What does this fold into?
Amino acid sequence: MDSPYLAFFADLRTDTPVDVLPLHGLEFDDYIGRPGSLSATLPVPNRRMAARVRQLVEGRTAVYLERGGQVCWGGIVWTLTPAMDEQGLVTVALQAATFDSYAARRRIRRTLAFTATDDVTIVRRLWEHIQEAPGGDIGVGYAPAPPGTPRTVTYHDGEETVVEEAVAELAATDPGFEYLVSVHRDPATGRRAKRLLFGVPRLDLGEGTTVLDLPGDVLTYSFPRDATRGGTTARARGGTPEGATGPVVSDEHVAQALIDGGFPRLDTTSDHGNVTDKATLNALARAELAALGGPVVVPAVRVRLDADTTPLLLGTTVRLRIHDVWFSPGLDATYRVVGVKVTAPERGRGESAELFLEGLEGRGAAAGQGVAERAPASPARQEHTDRDGQEAD
It folds into this structure.
């Protein structure tokens, strides 16, 4: 079976095209708020193909996937592993991650102080900081962003704060925001482009609602319910101010409704070593309790992909309808897609995608579940739109 995906390789910093190469065993995923990944193998049947694959340099090569002319994934090639099997066949295993993974490889090496500054603006400034240094610009642009919440924070030179961790901590502070680096085709130039995209407090993309049915498009589902990841109380522990004898700690926040409903006290704690402001720690604890209060449920469904149901579902709304022995008399609920994991077609295997779902409060909940579904922890549309929420170019 021919793959519907084309893999375009380019220089990471200049976007100069390198090659278009076939990928076998392709799987890729993408998530709101954390990097996605790609894994595949490059077949090397002869010296000519070996010379082409050698043009790819891990850490400085970008890879884009296109499906039906639409850019559906983009990221950085981080590892390449040439290997030969017992039959003498040579392949190169490729591992890549979305462009937001670049922030995990960059550290703040200049004191940056922000006073009562919008948290979304702080994130943009952090990305500007890492891209303004010589060799640091990987071409991530900035979409117009909604206003966030004022924060006061300082990153000191010498603390070696990882940019990805700084961004994640800001996003996790109540009321928070969501973000990703989107890839799309620039309508003015026709070139592939990437830009930082925000939603406050939530990132919703696309228009309309995709209906997924079982029996129908849905191949499998799972609704894991995990009380070991949840809790009914939360505290956030910060750093130790100069001259103090111990760290600053938030108040204890309690999910009283769950306790009144019969749940026991289950304590959760998080550490934030660079935060010494108690109000910020309280906001972090509130957000963590909201995300982890009670058993954590991360619904996932695997759906078949075709011309009508495409992998461009991240951030969109789906209506899930299931009627079987578990969901009786039936499930009819609305969710937001917070993660997509795609398995490309191979011989004897069709194209499919696993969708990770988050319940939309007030827009339907799983029948008989009793606990709101949540997104993973940092884990076909009626009208096609790209990840920027704009019409596909």
In short: Helices lie at 47-53, 119-132, 163-171, 256-260, 278-292. Residues 5-102 form a domain with the Phage tail proteins - horseshoe like beta roll fold fold (CATH 2.30.300.10). The longest strand covers residues 70-84. The chain has four domains: 5-102, 106-199, 204-227+295-393, 233-293.
